[in-house]
Each structure stands twice: as C-alpha cells, then as structure tokens.
Specification:
CATH class of the largest domain: Alpha Beta
Distance between the termini: 29 Å
Largest sheet: 6 strands, parallel
Strand content: 5-15%
Strand order of the largest sheet: 1-8-5-4-2-3
Helix content: 25-40%
Number of strands: 10
Radius of gyration: 20 Å
CATH architecture of the largest domain: 3-Layer(aba) Sandwich
Shape: globular
Length: 366
C-alpha cells in the first residue's frame, strides 16, 4: 500500500510567468528575491506584470539563508506587510527557503520563537488565519524547493543547519519558466543540476519510495545525465534549459514525499557546508558518492574542506552505526570518495556527531 500527494499547483513552460496575475486572483503580494535579480531584469518582469498589485520588493536574500539575517528580515516583513496575504519567491532554493521562513507570524513578533522550534522542537502552531501563501518561481533547476514543504535554514555561527517543515510551508503554486533561467552562469547551472541529480538518486534508493516517486526520479536522473553536459556547453540554449527544468521538477516531486527526505544530513556534507560553506556541487557530489559506493573501510573527506573544519574526534573501535534511513541495501561502510578541483581526497574520518555516545540515529548516510 502506498500514497502520493503533492498540493502545489504547477504551471510550467516557456512564458508561464504570465500566469502569475491569474494565480494571485487580485491579492496584493510582496516579492522576495536576490540582489542580482534587478540587474538581470527578472525583478522588473514581475513588477511589470503585477503593477500596483505588487506592494513591495525585498531583494536582500543571500545564499544559504542564515538566522543572523533572517531574524531582522522576518521582523521587518511582519511589521511592514502583516496584511499582505501572499509572498512571491523569485530565485533559487535559497530565496524560496527564505520565503517559507517568512510565511508565519510568531506571537511575540520575534523570529526567536520559530528558531526555538527548530533548535529544541518546541511547539509552534501559528494562527492559520494569519498565515501567508507562497507562489514560488525558481530561476534555477536544482533544489526542487518549489514543490516541497522543506526549507533549509543555516546557523553559521553555531555550525548548524535546520530543516523547517510544517503543513503551511508547502507553496500554494509554482511557476516553472525556463526562460527565467537563461542568465544562470555555467557554474551555478552545474551546481543546481548536481543537486537535482542527487535528489533523484536519493528518491530512487530510499526504502519509502513508491511507484510514482520511482518513476519520476528515474526519468529525472536519466534526463539530467543526458542534458546537463550539453547545457554546460550551451547555457543559452532555451530547449536544453526547458529539459533541465522539467528534470529538476520531476526530481523535486519525487523527493517531496514525507519520509523520502533524509532526517539528518550526511555528517561530512553538513560539516563542509555549515563550517566552510562549501559550494553546492561539492555537497551534491559527496552526498551521491557516499550513498552510491559501498564496501570500503571508512569514509573520506575532500582536501578542499579539511582546512576549515574543526578537529575530528577519533571513532572508538566498534561497529559502524546503522543508517537512520534503514537502507534497502546492506548498511556496510560507505565511501565518500569526493575529488574536487583535481585534489586528492583525504583519508579523514567522517565526524558529524560521531563521538563515543552517538547513537545510530545521529548519522544518516555514513
């Protein structure tokens, strides 16, 4: 017995941005986007479509939404635009995740209450009457955040990241218009493409998969492998952009099922990203490699990440902890053989919470 449900209203295809006024149905909206959106002309496209319906623009979103600036943004948004019923997120996964964190007010008006919910799992049930709805418009083909309820929020100072997942964090609608992705440079295209591929592979081999998610994920993986190399060579090819956008959408849909997303990140990738802010291609390659290759004695961490990582505690001599996802494959010791920029991988142990007291549930891939 299995079940598949995704509540996001999808509109896809070149020119589908024109559907935005119809989706708003007369509601005023606030645009959340990234600083370069103005120079690229993306911000103005939305402004021209909506006219006075667009009551404000916040283009201050930085990569990897961090609690250090999310706090001020949340307070500012709810003080100035508490009555605006809809947010439009125009950008990549960071912009969409940031917008999800803005959807709910807190009783005190402070972001600290939502942060306490993430850190300590304290109750957080906002009044449904005051929730905002979200229309997600991705400008990258990678994270799939436009069709999932998850938002990844970061705490660089504390060396941690959190996953916000509530019933109200599902976007109401998503617009997948590949013409908005034409200005994406080749490195970011590669980064987002590898992210989509890792999502597709994770959805394929997860024990919670079902026939629909497996079909979507398999189709996505094949399309990404076939399309991404050509797209890197020809980043302005609209047909290739559209194929990649569809593949990333399929991966996101496959990945959106509750239970398919990993409950905790791979220790190596979480350390590399939370501590050294490693770019997405490195995280994606390591995540895929860690889960794909089996049978070696211990995982390894790429040299590019080692210099900025804190000292790694040595693991006591005991059996490697079981995977918290209960893989369909035998949970033997995987290898993270991640070669970045031609650098030789280091033989350093994977260490996220890998101390003497860590339980099997504290490690996901390794």
């Amino acid at each position: 017995m299995w079940h598949f449900h995704n509540p996001v209203d999808l509109h896809a295809g070149v020119g589908s941005l024109a559907q935005l006024p119809q989706l708003l149905a007369g509601r005023p909206a606030l645009l959340i986007t990234f600083p370069e959106a103005a120079a690229l002309g993306l911000q103005q496209k939305v402004a021209d479509l909506l006219g006075p319906q667009l009551v404000g623009i916040d283009n201050s979103v930085l990569p990897n939404p961090d609690v250090s600036w999310l706090t001020g943004m949340h307070q500012r948004l709810w003080q100035r635009h508490a009555q605006v019923p809809c947010l439009i997120a125009l950008g990549g996964g960071s912009v969409i995740d940031c917008a999800k964190a803005m959807l709910a007010p807190t009783p005190s008006g402070r972001f600290d209450e939502l942060l306490a919910h993430l850190r300590e799992d304290t109750p957080f049930e906002p009044d449904p009457a005051h929730l905002k709805s979200l229309i997600a418009i991705p400008t990258t083909a990678g994270t799939g955040s436009e069709v999932t309820p998850w938002a990844t929020l970061w705490d660089a100072q504390g060396g941690r990241k959190y996953s916000l997942h509530r019933p109200w964090t599902w976007p109401q609608a998503a617009i997948i218009d590949a013409s908005l992705m034409l200005s994406l440079p080749a490195p970011a295209t590669l980064a987002s493409g590898l992210d989509a591929l890792s999502h597709a592979l994770e959805a394929i081999w997860n024990v919670h998969r079902n026939p629909v998610s497996s079909t979507l994920a398999s189709s996505a993986a094949r399309a990404i492998v076939a399309t991404l190399p050509a797209l890197i060579r020809e980043p302005e090819d609209l047909a290739l952009r559209e194929q990649m956008a569809l593949a990333a959408l399929q991966a996101g849909l496959a990945f959106s099922i509750p239970g398919l997303r990993w409950r905790t990140p791979c220790p190596m990738t979480s350390r590399c990203s939370a501590v050294s802010r490693t770019a997405s291609p490195v995280r994606s390659r390591c995540r895929t490699s860690c889960a794909w290759r089996w049978g070696a004695t211990e995982p390894s961490i790429p040299c590019c990440c080692r210099s900025s990582m804190p000292p790694v505690p040595s693991r006591p001599s005991r059996a490697w902890p079981a995977c918290s996802n209960r893989w369909a494959y035998p949970p033997t010791r995987p290898t993270m053989a991640c070669k970045t920029a031609g650098k030789r991988p280091c033989r350093q142990r994977c260490a996220g919470r890998a101390d003497a007291t860590s339980s099997p549930q504290s490690i996901d891939f390794c």
